[in-house]
Specification:
This protein is of the alpha+beta class and 105 residues long. The chain has a single domain, classed as Arc Repressor Mutant, subunit A (Orthogonal Bundle), CATH 1.10.10.10. Helix content is 61%, strand content 13%. A three-stranded antiparallel sheet has the order 1-3-2. The radius of gyration is 19 Å and the shape is elongated. GO terms for molecular function: DNA binding. Keywords: DNA-binding, Transcription, Transcription regulation. This is DNA-binding transcriptional ArsR family regulator.
C-alpha cells in the first residue's frame, strides 16, 4: 500500500461520524447494511450520511451495491486489512536486540 493511500484512508476514518459508520459496516459483515438501516443505527440525517459515505467510498474503504430499490453498503475488508497491514507490517523493525545494544557499547 502506498503511503498516500494509507494517509487518505486514515484521514477519512479520523472523523468521528465516519468512524461510527465504518465500524457499523464492519460489524454488519459481508451482508452489509441497507442505507436506511445504517441511517437509523447511526442516527444522522440522510444528507449527512450520504456525505460521509461518499468520502468512505472515495477512499476505497466502503462499497455500495444496488439491490432492486435498496442501496446496500459494505465495508471493503481487503482495503481494511491492507491498511491494518500497512500500520503493523514493520512493527518494531528498527528495535535492536539486547545483544546488539551490548555489542554497540
Amino acid at each position: 500500500m502506498k503511503l498516500e493511500t494509507a494517509a487518505t484512508q486514515l484521514e477519512a476514518l479520523g472523523n468521528p461520524t465516519r468512524l461510527r459508520i465504518y465500524r457499523a459496516l464492519v460489524r454488519a459483515g459481508e451482508q452489509g447494511l441497507a442505507v436506511g438501516h445504517l441511517q437509523e443505527r447511526i442516527g444522522i440525517a440522510a444528507s449527512t450520511l450520504s456525505h460521509h459515505l461518499h468520502r468512505l467510498i472515495a477512499t476505497g474503504l466502503v462499497g455500495q451495491e444496488r439491490q432492486a430499490t435498496t442501496l446496500i453498503c459494505r465495508a471493503n475488508y481487503a482495503a481494511m486489512n491492507g491498511l491494518l497491514g500497512f500500520l503493523s507490517d514493520e512493527c518494531c523493525a528498527d528495535v535492536r536486540s539486547p545483544q546488539t545494544k551490548d555489542n554497540a557499547a
